[in-house]
Amino acid sequence: MKERLKKIKQWWSRTLPFWKSIKNIWKKFQKTRGYSLVKILFLIAVCIGIGSGAAYIHHESDPTEDAAQYFRAFIQQDYDTIMKLVDVPEGGYIDRKQLETILSEQKKELHVDRYEILDPKREDGRTVVVFRCFDEETGKKTDFKVYLNRFHHGLNPISDYKISMDDFLVENYTVTIPKDTTLVINDTKLHNLKAQSEENGGKTYAFSAVLQGSYQVCAENTYGIGVKKEEITKPDLHTDLSKTSYEARPEYFKMIEEKTNGMLQQYYTAVRQKKISGKELEQYFSKEMSGKLKGLVQKSVNMIFDQDEEKQYEITGLDLSDQKITATYNKEKNCFDVQCGFRIKYECATQTSLLNSYSESYKGNCQTTIHMKMNLSEDNMQITEFTIKNKKE
Which has more confidence, 53 or 285? Predict the structure, then answer.
């Protein structure tokens, strides 16, 4: 250690004259014009740097560009761009379909042939950029205001801006849906949404804010969709879908409709022929129901035919009209509840013969309602329960 210190002292004593000469040169340079010029150039560089930095920060923090991008997208109704620009509140939900409704109504009231952009300013705690729009035909001048929310990120002096939708927001909206379902709002499935609470298998979702307006709120599972239409115009609203009946999903409703129409065709063919059994009709029913078909068909035969055994009436006309089918998913029994209502118009007559050259006839109308339960099989959907009510008119 002592040897090292000795060597350092020796090195310093040898280089000391060099450092003294550098010091003398620097003192002489400070007395020259060149030194003053260097100082001036350094100060100019600092000022330019500060000015450029301030200009850059001002440019990057200027909301005009963001507002102009939104305004152009608004005029063109470019909702893909608009959805990227709008500010979604933390814990809130901006529904695209509802946003389109709001902005399309705004667009109807605005006629723009040319416009000018005014300087941004602060208004009601927000930044606002005014677009002064001119209608050349009428000479009308309209100010269109674009409000922006400003965001700071730590010590970063540059601000970010998002288009504010605060004027159209409703606070604190909640939805409860049953077990094993997905929340759907205006045809948008919210798959990855985290429930605020879960109780008895049901889930409750809480939104800090949503856009005001008319919504179709649904809980959807494999077989059905529970639907409620909701007017969200005030804060603290709650939609409860836990006890809502579930309409059959479109693909299942189509199968139900086809099965129902095919069954009705075979059912009234059996009624027309007074044939109370047959494989063509039985294929639509479960095995448990097959034994009950005789009584069901006989009930319809008795409703249409006059009970005069000697006259032997036959059906000469039978039309079904005003058909309406509804189908809901039964969560408890895991099947579809189907109701089919229609109007029957029928005509009956006796046959003519060599001994009897005339026939007797009658006609009537009947309102019929059928209630059924169908299983969930996609390959062979069958009727497991069936009741029919006929009301003559």
Answer: 285
